[in-house]
Amino acid sequence: MVTNLFVKDRVAIVGAGITTFMRRALETPRELAWEAARMALDQAGLTLKDVDCVVIGSAPDTFDGVHLKGEYLADGSGAIRKPMTRVYVGGGTGVFVPVSAWWHVASGLCKTVLAVGEEKMSPAHPHPQYVFRYIWDPIIHRPLEPNLIWIFAMEMRRYMAKCGAKKEDIALVSVKNKRNALDNPAAQVAANITVDDVLKSEVLVWPVQELDVSPVTDGAAALVITSENVARQVTDSPVWIEGVGFTLDNQHWENRELAFPRYLNYAARMAYRMAGIERPWKEIDVAEPYDPFDYKELHHIEGLMLARPCEAWKLLKEGYFNRDGELPTSPSGGLLGVGNPIAAAGVMKVAELFWQLRYEAGKRQVKRPVHRAVANAWGDLMQAGTVIVLGN
Amino acid sequence: MPRRVGIIGVGWYGFRPSTPEVHFQGMMFESSHRAYADANVDPRKDVDVFVDCQEDLWEGIAITDEFAPEPIGGALRPTFTVSGDGLLGVAHAYMLIRSGLADVVAVEAHGKPSEIRTLQDVYYMAFDPLHVRPLPTGNPFFLAGLDAQAYMQRTGASREHLALVSAKNRTNGLKNERAPYSARLTVDDVLSAPYAVYPLTRYDIADFSDASVTVVLASEEAAKRFTDKVVWLDGIGFSTETGSGAVEWHAWGRMLSMRDAALMAYKLAGLAGSPSESFDLAEVEDRFSFMELLSLEELMLAKEGEAHRLLEQGHFNLGGPLPVNPSGGSLAMGVQLEATGLARLLEAVLQLRGEAGPHQVKGARKAVVATWRGVPTYTSAVAVLSAG
Amino acid sequence: MSVTKLPGTKLSSKEMYSLPGLVESVPQAKYDFSAGPTISRFLQGLKEGKILGRKCPRCGRVYVPPRDYCEYCHVALTDWVEVPDTGTVHTAVVSYISVKRERLEKPEVIGVIRLDVPGYPPNGYEFAGLFHRLCVSPEEAMSDKVIGMKVRARWKPKEQRTGSILDIECFEPVR
User: Residue A206 and residue C95: Cα distance in Å, rounded?
Assistant: First the structure.
């Protein structure tokens, strides 16, 4: 692996767009993609003619119910007579879309890339969760009839056992994020809740309860990513992509310590090295760690080296990760507050950091000054870690 | 000076109608193991990024990239999936190496269509659920039939010309160990078979086969550390004309995505003269017989409306001025779903190394490879290769 | 961003299902997966009442569930070894919902069992293990003492074993 010896131009994000995140959208998947893409282009002051390449991210085809989903979303995402590919690392896709857009530009092949993440989970019937039945190894796991939440619960339990974190400590993430989301116009499940509310919610797979989990969501988000030259022409405040990292661990999550996400750690090291960051806990000003479950945010904060292993829940209690804290995390409201349209969720988090770094996040703007930010997404069977480091 | 990208290793497994002796991951392991041996690399130390090309519904697994890393040596390494044809994965590898992020990239693609019990239904799932899927169309390949008709009308090619493509390719395949569907087929054999989808008979349409192909790419300096045997990837192009939800915007009888992809690849390769004089062989899309002729036009290897005339004259035969599909193409090798593009790339690489065996094109130094993702997509990819 | 109303039209469940343009499509996607030689042998072992692991000739790791190849060395695995059907509980949870998100009549206890397979450091990151049911009560599963508890496989009687992961009924505490 080499660090960016041959990158002549830097790569920047110059525009971002998101749709409302909702349980059921009237719009078709292509329309959702189009809305987000259009908004991102508008913000950048560009049109489809200016776009050279398109990267699409969308997770299981079985949600939208269309095979070869990338082809289906193509025209809505602007891929009309344009080079387009769809990239896929499960839930890690959302951050992976801008990561792969980075090398589209850094290679010199494209100057302006439209990166779109879309997910429509509502078509799946009787319940989108049933689709997750098919992610398991068909021979060794499926006969046990596992439910997706089982693995999360197992990981959460292990984290609690190893790190001494209790349910009421972890529930603070849900409280924080849903409250942050009250200031996010896209939010699906923003609310003012208490730890007690979380502890009283329906027990799904103990220790996971209803309010520990992000919802099923339809939504899309998009970014416009360009070379330095183009960025300087369209905006005064480009947000630079300073580091990219990604790792995929093996599929045998039953053979690994679940309390620490080493795959995320590897991905983070790759991104930090590229960005020249040696002490992330000091040098990162704001973060959007992936939070499909409340404990996951803590898990990821540690994987990203923003806190020592097993320490994140203690810092959380002190308010360290609040919007007015030392290292604000999920100021957007995260997946717990805004929603979880699998691939689009990660793009939403990157979009949030884009706005934070330009001081355009309005009521969600974090109190402290921001220069460097990191977002991660996670996916598959406890395998995928994708990381992006941004700077203004 | 942009970094040069080369192919330093290839490996494959299968190319048979079914492979019941292996689990799909077994196929991936076999082809990648062979590719790494061919390239002289240790995947755990020397490969920087692993790219896998799969689609959920071809695999029967809802998040198929979960099963990608282990078999190809990418566990706990930078690994990801491109939901598309193998050549699209190669495009990513090219960009990764050119950006400087990676020196060595492995790309794997596989198809195990024999395990899909309801293949036609899975094809239908790719169709727009609101406007196209509900229509009573009988066979998903009706879209190819429409294109074939439009192509024939525009160019004056006849069913005999289409049949000649099939006869040529299936006969070529007899010399290729990776071509299970080869046969001494004549134009009459093709024409007298019943129609599958008008105007195509069953011999105008490629069957399916199982295979896994792995390709290892490297930058010029990195390549030197491992091997002397390099085939240069001078250019790569890829393009989507329109989405599968908007098939009515497709230019019928054309494959504009292939033309756009070719222009992109040719520009990167810095082709000096006209494409038709630049190559010693071409491995082009032929999963429907008419596609070979259409591809040759979109690749500018034949003038508009000329492809079928050149075919008649034997221009594209194994001994001719520009052998097209000396491997037998998909018509003889089968379609391996998303591995099809890599299968054709594999054939071209072997040719340029002089390792193609009985179907070797003598003195092959430059080749072009072109693939389309098949019905109901309008996405194509093109690669330009030259011998090292 | 300065917009207050973002694109997108929310629908309630009732509204969605009474849309005039609603199209129902039932996927017909059926597959026949080849188990391959390794998993086939593993399942055969289960039928015989044994947990089989496979060893890497280069690094010596014994993999359970077994694979065809070593993920660390990228070489084919060779020797089969029978591993103890005992281990410790790495994590355990209690499920109250089914795959379709419906309430279960009887909650299920599942977990990850770290098997007593030699060669892995005792508290190391990697281990040979299985994901399976635990035959403990939900209360026991939720207590602290279940983590690290010693367990053994409870096999189904020989006549009921078919060569499936379900030939093990669950892992029960070694008391």
Answer: 6
Whole-number Cα distances in Å, A172 to A69, A223, A259, A290, A343: 37, 30, 19, 15, 25
CB contact, 8 Å: A66 with chain B? yes
Phi-psi region of C89 (alpha: psi -120 to 50; beta: other; left: phi over 0): beta
pLDDT in tens, A11-65: 999 999 999 999 999 999 999 999 999 999 999 999 999 999 999 999 888 887 8
Find the helix packing angle between B289-298 and B159-172, rounded to 10°.
Answer: 100
User: pTM of the entire structure?
Assistant: 0.96
Could you report the per-residue pLDDT of A119-142, keeping only the tens digit for each?
998 888 777 777 777 778 888 888
Does the structural domain B5-116+207-387 have CATH classification 3.40.47.10?
yes
Residue-range domains of chain A with CATH: 11-125+215-391 (3.40.47.10)
Residue contact A150–C95, C-beta within 8 A: yes
- Angle, CA of B308, B380 and B349, to the nearest 5°: 80
Domain limits, chain B: 5-116+207-387
Nearest to B48, CA basis, from A125, A247, A32, A144: A247
Bridge partner list, B212: B13, B110
**What whole-number distance in Å separates Cα of residue A350 and Cα of residue A373?**
9
CB < 8 Å to A150, chain C: 93, 95, 110
CA atoms within 13 A on the CB side of A354: 27
- The answer to whether residue A4 scores a pLDDT higher than 60 is no
**Confidence tier at B272 by pLDDT (50, 70, 90):** confident
| Residue A5 at interface with chain C, using a CB cutoff of 8 Å | no
Query: Is the Cβ–Cβ distance between A87 and A117 less than 8 Å?
Result: no
Chains in touch with B (3+ beta-carbon pairs under 8 Å) read A, C
